Amino acid sequence: MVQSTLRTYFESVNKVAYEGKDSKNPLAFKYYNPEEVIGGKTMKDQLRFSVAYWHTFTADGTDPFGVATMQRPWNRFSGMDLAKARVEAAFELFEKLGVPFFAFHDRDVAPEGSTLRETNKNLYVIIEMIKEYMKTSNTKLLWNTANMFSNPRFVHGAATTSNADVFAYAAAQVKKGLETAKELGAENYVFWGGREGYETLLNTDLKLELDNLARFMHMAVDYAKEIGFDGQFLIEPKPKEPTTHQYDTDAATTISFLRQYGLEDYFKLNLEANHATLAGHTFEHELRVARTSGFLGSVDANQGNPLLGWDTDEFPTDLYSTTLAMYEILKNGGLGHGGLNFDAKVRRTSFEPEDLFYAHVAGMDAFARGLKVAHKLIEDRVFDDFIEQRYSSFASGIGQDIVEGRTNFHTLEAYILDKDHIKNVSGRTEQLKATLNQYLLEV
Question: What is the pLDDT of residues 89-101, one digit of tens each?
Answer without folding.
Answer: 999 999 999 999 9
